[in-house]
Amino acid sequence: MKRPTPDQESPSPVKSWRLPPGQEATRLDLFVRRCLPHLSLREVRRAIEEKAFWINGRPGKKGDRLFAGDLLSLRGAEHWLLTAPSAEAGLQASILYEDDLVLAVDKPAEMAVHGFSGREKHSLANFLLAIRPSLRTVGKSPWEPGLVHRLDQGTSGVVLVAKDQTTFEKLRFQFYRGLIKKRYRALVWGTPKREGVVAYPLIHDPKDRRKMKALMVVKRGEKIDQVKTWKASTRFRVIGYAEEFSVLDVTIEAGVTHQIRVHLQALGYPLVGDPLYGKNQPDPFRLGHQFLHAYHIGFRHPESGEEITIESPLPQELKRILEILRINL
Questions:
Q1: DSSP 255
Q2: Under a CB-based contact definition with an 8 Å cutoff, are residues 68 and 23 in contact?
Q3: How far apart are the C-alpha atoms of 247 and 262, rounded to whole Å?
Q4: Contact predicate 129/136, CB 8 Å
Q5: What CA–CA distance (Å, rounded) separates 247 from 185?
Q6: Cα 55–60–65 angle (5° rounding)?
Q7: CA 195 to CA 102: how far, in whole Å?
Q8: How many angstroms separate the CA atoms of 48 and 32, rounded?
Q9: Residues near 329 by Cβ (< 8 Å), separated by ≥ 6?
Q10: pLDDT of the chain, 329 residues: tens digit per residue
Q11: Catalytic residue (one of 29, 152, 249, 274)
């Protein structure tokens, strides 16, 4: 590797690391991960693409290797050093329910539930730490303060939050046992039968790691041996029709990433506006995200055992679409 000369116009180093003498050549992304283990490999590669890491005074690139004595510097972007989300005042999300142990928030569609680095400033995690700083120590990861489950970005509705670790563990146990019931409103293309259940196992799409795929629709020849699969069951009921669209009431229990979106696409009824699973369909209402709203969650209170039900009203932008279609729920 040709050793670059220092660039005098580069941003000032925020932090630096040197590959120890005697070390074998090490791939840049793996060395960064070793230095900053709180970052996922995906976030490390994103930081490298953004020229956040420099080798001997020059921006590091994908595929670069470091040799003994090389100096790695983080320049400019200090947020990559953060090990937990920052508290961001000014973000907007409604509180639907709160007591001493449990909090339920109405997540807007445009808001991610959480990020994986300090770069994210607009997530529900950032909002939660601004209003309830004590959540910082609750949950399975510092990036997911108190969050018992997730919703995709683009999906709006109820998100359940635990306010201490004991409550978190009890609510997660209810999820694992299928005791927490989640219901959604979805607008899909097409006219499915009145009701049905989809139970295709899900896998990561071997051609696109951003996506999941129903095992039933994996094409012949695609390698699936020893690939991890997730059991998933989605129950739906048609509650409204209009032209080429249908409104569904959808019920799931624990839930797998993108489950509803993948299952309905596999049946041939993709969600209206879905940018990832509905690319063969237009976005006629210029929604910019999938029409999917988590309107109901039911669980047993972790202390009293009382049945708690929390509901979220359909957002105005989704109501507008149903009004255009003249669908009354």
A1: -
A2: yes
A3: 17
A4: yes
A5: 7
A6: 75
A7: 33
A8: 9
A9: 185, 239, 240, 247, 314, 322
A10: 444 444 445 577 789 999 998 888 999 999 999 999 999 898 999 999 999 999 999 999 999 999 999 999 999 788 899 999 999 999 999 999 999 999 999 999 999 999 888 888 999 999 999 999 999 999 999 999 999 999 999 999 999 999 999 999 999 999 988 899 999 999 999 999 899 999 999 998 888 878 998 887 655 555 555 578 889 999 999 999 998 999 999 999 767 889 999 999 999 999 999 999 987 889 999 999 999 999 999 999 999 999 999 999 999 999 999 999 999 88
A11: 152
Beta strands in 2-90 (DSSP E): 13-18, 26-27, 53-55, 58-59, 65-66, 71-75
Closest CA to 196 of 233, 231, 235, 240: 235
pLDDT for res 3:
46
CA 81/CA 269 separation, integer angstroms? 43
Locate 106 and state its tokens. 């109405």
Amino acid of residue 149: H
The 10 Å Cβ neighbour count of residue 267 is 20
Query: Which stretch of DSSP H or E encloses residue 316?
Result: helix 316-325
Degrees to nearest 5, angle at CA 182 with 141 and 214? 80
Strands 292-300 and 307-311: antiparallel
Helix, strand, or coil here: 122? coil
Distance CA(27)–CA(30), nearest Å, equals 5
303 conformational bin, left if phi > 0, alpha if psi -120 to 50, beta if neither: alpha
100 is catalytic: no
**CA–CA separation, 109 vs 303, rounded Å?**
31
CA dist 151 and 124 (Å) reads 10
Phi, psi values for residue 93, rounded to 5°: -155, 140
- Domains of the chain in start order, with CATH, are 13-79 (3.10.290.10), 82-177 (3.30.2350.10), 179-329 (3.30.2350.10)
pLDDT of residue 128: 98
Q: What is the pLDDT of residue 221?
A: 52
